[in-house]
Amino acid sequence: MLSTQEVSTQDAEGQQAVVADAPFSSLSTRMHQMFPTLTCEEIGRLRRFGEIGHWKAGELMFETGHTGPGMFVVLEGRVKIYQRDGIGREVLIGEHGAGHFLAEVGQLSERPALVNGMALTAVEALLIPPEKLRALIVAEAELGERIMRALILRRVSLIEKGAGGPILVGNSSDAQLVMLQGFLSRNGHPHSVIDERDEDALRLIEQFAAQREDMPLVICPDGRVLRHPSMPELATCLGLLPDLDDSYVYDVAIVGAGPAGLASAVYAASEGLSVIVLDSRAPGGQAGASSRIENYLGFPTGISGQALAGRAFVQAQKFGARVAIPVHVKALHCAASPYRLELKCGGHITARTIVIASGAVYRRPALEGLDRFDGRGVYYWASPVEAKLCKRQEIVLVGGGNSAGQAIVYLATHAAKVHVLIRRSGFEATMSRYLIDRIRSLPNVFVHPNSEIGRLEADESGLASVGLKQPLPDGVDHFDTRHLFLFTGADPNTDWLRTCGVRLDAKGFVLTGIGAGGTAAACDLATTVEGVYAIGDARAGSTKRVAAAVGEGAAVVAQIHQLLAVSAAEAVALGA
């Protein structure tokens, strides 16, 4: 059985690093940072950002699942903070009085509240709405830093408790459940999981008359029940998707929330441009699935991809960038300016400039029947969710790049044995030296050079065996395993550009810096369509490193500013 605490704590692992200022930092030693008491002088500095309100004893100030009104600064009275989930269970989080502020990081972007706040006595409080809260954090540097740290730490604490999130009921090995769990985990949203064999789960299944085809069952914080939901359905129920106004024209629309896309969002929004970021899954892109990045500048002890993405995601929200996840972009229409992004869910986004940061999609080997094993034994990333599934088991991993190396090191701490298949004779040409040395030191990792998968075999439970094209030197021609991790490269995620005049190379990567003479300028991130730019892994000639992607995300904003300045000047001249 998967206990809710066990799962929630695992999901918090990546989020812990989002806020840790030093190695070995833990929430238990940071309560003073999570719940600081403001002085009268500090409250005085906050008054210009909000308005005074009054609440009677027993009145709800904010409620789980409903859009939070912002941050409350308690001036008089006491407030009870508690969790009430979708099946009526109630857990006390704490009580707060004068000098305390009530909010968590979701209030930066008008997300639904994750807990209830009820006035225990008559309460007078300063209410600071989200847009003013963002302005406060920027304008009041020292005080804003303390508030921001507290907001993030509170989210981490809620993730550990599973507080305010949905309840997922199902079989731990079910592909849909694994997918939903991974989506919530990578988006830093609290949740709990109950195995369908547990007594509590059986009661819920009976209560909601759920059939086999309804599983997994999801009970949202407001009590709504979803039967076998998709990611967008779950996101909508949780209020994660912002209202997308078709009539609003953004300065910049960024497709992709990987390191490149998030960097461009941070720099553009911090310089006053209106920004929206669209992604189909979670912040971080492929880098977000990396268990530990150890060669990124400024993090000598390393940082997980999810933690790095989490920091950037919060930073973008701090400056006012809107982020819509999960949203799939169907097509870019650029026959006329402003440009239009058509969404698969219906509707569209309009913007003066477009940044292509859609990265790459995992390459799928040409194996018969591969699709039926997705989430049922075959995985394309290694998060705590997948690591728990293969704990103390024998697994197979295919790939020889840095992403594969990071996954090998991480999974080796969970699995009994890790068999690594690579087509080359070694890792030297494709993997960083520090990862090669680390892998060589792991006693339960067995690297098999010059080997390839030939077939997959199944039984009634899913994947059962991985067969090889040619036997190994010792005669082994297959591995009995229920877990196969594929890190076999990626292809550019650029199919949605076919309706526009953006020029691609033969492999589908976006060409940039192509001048009138047909020559390419390395520092120019503009595509063949004016006002459309490409950065990160989707761009032809990119370095395929997180640091390079972040650099391109910053550089593209300068080029966007130049274009918008010229457009504004031309508009003024025409008006004159």
Automatic annotation (TrEMBL):
<protein>
    <submittedName>
        <fullName>Cyclic nucleotide-regulated FAD-dependent pyridine nucleotide-disulfide oxidoreductase</fullName>
    </submittedName>
</protein>
<dbReference type="Pfam" id="PF00027">
    <property type="entry name" value="cNMP_binding"/>
</dbReference>
<feature type="domain" description="Cyclic nucleotide-binding">
    <location>
        <begin position="34"/>
        <end position="154"/>
    </location>
</feature>
<dbReference type="InterPro" id="IPR018490">
    <property type="entry name" value="cNMP-bd_dom_sf"/>
</dbReference>
<dbReference type="InterPro" id="IPR036188">
    <property type="entry name" value="FAD/NAD-bd_sf"/>
</dbReference>
<dbReference type="InterPro" id="IPR000595">
    <property type="entry name" value="cNMP-bd_dom"/>
</dbReference>
<dbReference type="GO" id="GO:0016491">
    <property type="term" value="F:oxidoreductase activity"/>
</dbReference>
<dbReference type="InterPro" id="IPR014710">
    <property type="entry name" value="RmlC-like_jellyroll"/>
</dbReference>
<keyword id="KW-0560">Oxidoreductase</keyword>
<dbReference type="InterPro" id="IPR050097">
    <property type="entry name" value="Ferredoxin-NADP_redctase_2"/>
</dbReference>
<dbReference type="InterPro" id="IPR023753">
    <property type="entry name" value="FAD/NAD-binding_dom"/>
</dbReference>
<dbReference type="Pfam" id="PF07992">
    <property type="entry name" value="Pyr_redox_2"/>
</dbReference>
<keyword id="KW-0285">Flavoprotein</keyword>
